[in-house]
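# step 3/5: fold
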Amino acid sequence: MATLYPHHEPYDHGMLPVSDGQHLYWETCGNPTGKPALVLHGGPGSGCTPYWRRLFNPAAYRIVLFDQRGCGRSSPHASDPTVDLSVNTTHHLIADIEALRRHLDIDQWLVLGGSWGSTLALAYAQTHPNRVTQLVLFSVVTTTRREVEWITRHMGRIFPEQWTRFRNGVPPEDRDGDLAAAYSRLLEDPDPKVRDQAARRWCAWEDTHVATTPNYRPDPRYRDPRFRMAFARLVTHYWRHAAWLEDGALLHGATRLTGIPGVLIHGRLDISSPVDIPWQLSQNWPSSELILVDHAGHGAGHHGITDAVVAALERFATHQ
């Protein structure tokens, strides 16, 4: 069984100014002359944590982490209700990744992404396939309208009581419509109490729909008002727009990844993001490998998923 590498600190970090007045926090860890690897965190809005560094062999990899627009240590922070989210889209993030690559003078890199990070990794790799050496993706999602509808509405069949509370958190006239859009509107309300209540209810549902395994533990970050607000604003903003991607674009565009080795790692008990998503992707991407992890749900908090990610990164460590 693979284990996490020991904790290690960045050897360099900074704030990169990009478009629209945004400044991205970035850091590099591991071996400055090692194989370049980029980490794309989930959410949107989760930010990078030290956990991600420990998935890589620090002697083999030059590990690049950054906090995507509006979250973590990047600025301006989406917890501020005055921060304009119209300049925070998938296409902005793809441009940010390229700006960071050029800033660090990296020609090509392996890309690791989990959950929302897998959507962003796929969108980036399909836009710039010549910049990606390999892809390692876990808890794979493509953020289609169908997937958003599944999580925000149909998962109510699994957790009916909690979903009823979630649905009833929006005005009656919005309860049969787009719940992500309804919550997004509440999170822009001029009344701070309305915004806070909406963020709490959204994050409570987030903690519920991934809780499909006995060992699941609630995410303690949702107790932080600043994190909770930025996370809820960003997720609902991205979900209501289906990540600004044409429906099915990442699935159909997988042919652009031909020749790029990929590993798709997914929990069999990931009900909020059903396994048909990575399976269909693997069918369209011949150079990918699908690994299904028994007894694992959504996210990196499952030993089997972590083990598979570390093993895949070990396998690619010596590949160009």
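# step 4/5: annotate
The first helix runs from residue 50 to 53.
# step 5/5: archive (pending)
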